[in-house]
Amino acid sequence: MALDLSRLLAEPVDARCKGFPYAAAPMPLREVGRQGWNVLRGDCPFPVAVVRRSAMQANSAWMREFTRSTGVRIAPHGKTTMCPQIFARQIDDGAWGITVANVRQLDLCVAIGAKRVLVANQVLAPLDVARLATLVNRDRALEIFFLVDSLDQLAIVDAELRRHELVRPLAVLLEIGYEGGRTGVRSCAEALALARTIAASPAVALSGIECYEGLLVADSDRDRARVEELLAGVRAVAAACDAERLFAGPEVILSAGGSAAFDIVARDLPLRLSKLVTIILRSGCYITHDTGTYERLFERVRERSGEPWRSAPGLRPALEVWSQVQSRPERGLAILTMGRRDASFDADLPRPIKWFRSGLHAAPASAPAAWQVVKLNDQHAYLRVPEDADLKVGDLVGCGISHPCTTFDKWQLLLEVDDGYTVVEGLRTFF
Amino acid sequence: MALDLSRLLAEPVDARCKGFPYAAAPMPLREVGRQGWNVLRGDCPFPVAVVRRSAMQANSAWMREFTRSTGVRIAPHGKTTMCPQIFARQIDDGAWGITVANVRQLDLCVAIGAKRVLVANQVLAPLDVARLATLVNRDRALEIFFLVDSLDQLAIVDAELRRHELVRPLAVLLEIGYEGGRTGVRSCAEALALARTIAASPAVALSGIECYEGLLVADSDRDRARVEELLAGVRAVAAACDAERLFAGPEVILSAGGSAAFDIVARDLPLRLSKLVTIILRSGCYITHDTGTYERLFERVRERSGEPWRSAPGLRPALEVWSQVQSRPERGLAILTMGRRDASFDADLPRPIKWFRSGLHAAPASAPAAWQVVKLNDQHAYLRVPEDADLKVGDLVGCGISHPCTTFDKWQLLLEVDDGYTVVEGLRTFF
Known about the structure:
The structure is a homodimer.
Chain A: H1 6-10, E1 12-13, E2 27-28, E3 48-52, H2 53-70, E4 73-74, H3 84-92, E5 98-100, H4 103-111, E6 116-122, H5 126-138, E7 143-148, H6 151-161, E8 170-176, H7 188-200, E9 204-211, H8 221-243, E10 251-256, H9 262-268, E11 276-281, H10 293-305, E12 319-330, E13 333-336, E14 351-356, E15 365-366, E16 372-376, E17 381-384, E18 396-400, H11 405-408, E19 413-417, E20 423-428
Parallel strand pairs in A: 3-19, 4-11, 5-6, 6-7, 7-8, 8-9, 9-10, 10-11
Antiparallel strand pairs in A: 1-2, 3-12, 12-13, 12-18, 13-17, 14-15, 14-18, 16-17, 19-20
């Protein structure tokens, strides 16, 4: 099911998007990669967010190989990038479907021809439920799943669905949570009671069990045990529902999300039921990876996964934000033309990884490890450098970021570049 | 100089923007306020960002009165909202011009007919400098100002400008900073040396002196003294430049930014020179105000300002993010359908101020003070409530935010509403 980007690629983009050169005329999105713009040459205004094509391709291949060899499927979380062009590549690379966080994001996927979308969240607003009914009624080939975690939610959904004539019930996954966590039922007994009510509803069909383990993972062995415990809970509920014949359809979906412990999911979630079981990972961040949180967590994934994963090349950071030194007001301090509106700051501050001075460098040099972004304002970054650092007003600095989701959402247009930083495609996002 | 929004208002918006109903056809921006959508009725998908028209109008009137009575002018910082429709109202309300943070933002202002724009930042990238030259050469009525804080920056600007035939020199303001601060020269001697070099350059003209006091303000008396000291530095440099006849043109601009101590600026910055002196405030956040940082800081403004400001109604929070309770997974916990992609979290977490249950409420009720957002994920908020709180799955919660800039930049379309939460205009932003 290849996605259809033709309408999107024909839409105009213009200099109101950050990163698009002022003097360039508005152009269809598909033309952005044909202009020969080079970021290091200063063809695009700073700051710019770039995605390195070679790294993104390697990451997509890595995950394809990982899922193939472990026998699980992936519905990459689209909320990470909200970029249909990236969704299309993920589908081309064998993704089972796309995951999204809400009905608006789902709508965007359906508009470009996605046929299998998992809304990894509770849907309940009448407007949202009505939209699901409309979409499902409009296209028999469209498979949509959403999460249910309470009888209250189910009652609201059922009430709205009574106002619609459905061609088939809406597919839901029951969400399992844990004490102190986010959404999801907290006990097996509660889960079973809810599963029975879902199974009895004519408007919805129980298609599987779901959890989100991502928030449990922070590098420690204790976290690993908690992830395993959560997954065991999903299996237990799935087995109980199977025993009671509560699942609708020929297949049961078991799914867990996150980009920090997908190896544990792939190993622990599979189980044998009376119906075919499909295991769906929902990792989103692997596609660009990062220079921070996921970089650290991925090392644990490799350690846990043994060979060949431990020795083979792993995921690579693909996302960088480039800006310019606008001031060196004190020795040891450089102010950059980027701020909290341009780069993630919720997990870690951006990390300077490269720098470039026109005339001095032919290609970006590695930034010294001592360079450190210590603070962000809305439009500025404070870069601490050694007192004798050779960094001048006008130099370019490339920062890696930690947590791709919160950098993507700051850009309507990211520039995909080759290894020489020539723009090969403009990537539109929809946040 | 009224701004021209006709092209913008004719541009289509569609359901790819958060807050726009899925089932509504794409429509010109001007039509959004004519649909009769009501946020509380659930006509728009959650989360939504709303701006309360009555509060925004009151804030604009407050600032008009404040500047009129203190004899200063304002060039509101456009980076706060990046909303041309709001810029137009600020100009209609007597603003001297618009302030922006970079050339891309300037370009957007010029495109809608702004004739006076202050880039409150160092400009130096060749692409940026070239754009300034193009814009100034294209329109003799256009006044653009930008900041210079180093000889290195000036040399880069001069070098680029030698490649252009300018109809007139570019107007610059010299930025004064302080030790431990952001940009800006750190000493009076350094400032004067730079001012002399600017005055000697054929490509740029020294039009005034500038500082940004906003980062010095955090509620304490010590901060107040530091603001006064910084402003004294601006006055001293201005007087010295005036004595040396370094200012070009018939007028000298003295400007300071920020929304936290504009009263001190209005009181302390004016001085008598051999030329007409115009004092320009650059506050941006006053237009929507907030429920947090600026709410606290504004109380200090009122205390310092004496009567009538102390007793008269002050600025009001206009910006709210509404979302829905999607889960009540534990007693004392509600999960909301909004996250760090929807509301500011750099200063404080969003504060629940209102709630609404269809069928129970005719209008939003005040949220109990004990309700507290304690954590955000990308798409979720964790709301702690007392164990016996009457808050159900499906209820709506309206949050005030702290620091408007970082909420505006998360929305391409904000919904301006009347006091009954009916949408009266769609506000487009360009981040």
